[in-house]
Amino acid sequence: MVTVKKIIKDEKGASMPLVAIILGLFALAFIALVVDVGTLYIERKKMVTSADAAALAGAQVIRTNKLEEKPKDDSIIFPEAQAIAEKYAIANGADPKQIKVFVGYKSVLLPDGKTESRQVVEVTVGKNKDLIFARFLGDDDTDVKANAVATWGYVKKSCYFPIFIFDTSYELNKNITLHDNVSLDGPKTNSYGFVQVNNNPGMSDIKLAIEGKISVPPKSVGDILEGVAGKRESVYKSAVTRIGDIVIIPIIDSIGFENDPANAAKNAKKWQLPVKYFAYFKITDVIKQNVQGNKSVEIKGQFTGKIIDKINDVEDSDQSNPNTDPDGDAPATYSRLIK
What we know:
Blueprint: H1 4-9, H2 16-66, H3 74-91, E1 100-109, E2 115-130, E3 141-157, E4 165-166, E5 175-177, E6 180-181, E7 188-189, E8 193-195, H4 204-210, E9 219-220, E10 224-229, H5 236-240, E11 246-252, H6 254-259, E12 270-291, E13 294-303, E14 310-311, E15 315-316, E16 333-337
Parallel strand pairs: 4-11
Antiparallel strand pairs: 1-2, 2-3, 3-15, 3-16, 5-13, 6-7, 8-10, 9-14, 10-12, 11-12, 12-13
């Protein structure tokens, strides 16, 4: 016979609710931890973008002022660069109270392994984020920080940009979109002509050359370059790194192009490009578009300075103008992140 006492004393299954509660708490804690880590990861990426954009903007201010006909003194330029850096940091989500900007001289490590005193813009940004799981450990929030350093300089040798334009589209000091349609019906802007780099038929070397990270053999007027088709949107990330830079663009002889039998085939994927001359081009903007599924990238800027007859490989210089000839071509420059 089952008595009341036996029912009260029977503890079978009594631990199951407790186990369920503990497992539920662990599951909640794990989910909260994942949320915390994910939130901090996203915020960290935002802060890296904020620091990078701020440092580059500050470096470009210094470079622009140094290149003016009557360059300003550092005591004027540096505060301007600091103000612009702070503005960009805030615009990209940094807490104004956690922004630190240094503008001045620092010893920096160059790509060749040497160190050199350079004008730099160093930006440290941060933002406070509330936590979920860490509250149980006594931490309600944490600061997410990022740091970036940018510098600028002249280029000893010409900075080659492997995107061509026809001579009929060349115009000095006018806003130009840097793409030409390869067509025997006549040059048209904004299409997909690239110059093959180092006999590599793919886009990988073209992207590296656009970024200024690859060696390119010397080229001269009269050379025949090999043109290749490529997707414009594929070079977007490479091209945006050059906004504000002055590069060298090959200008193609449109008549020589049209008279070359190798270019006569319709829908040709490769072309022979006779170089008429080279010209300096300042990149002012890179725009990515997607109109009704048709993706495109427009590289905008202006041709500036005199035309030149040959180019060599890219080689960074210091912040002293390498061009001692007052009537010579305006030297190419760069501004880039070094940390």
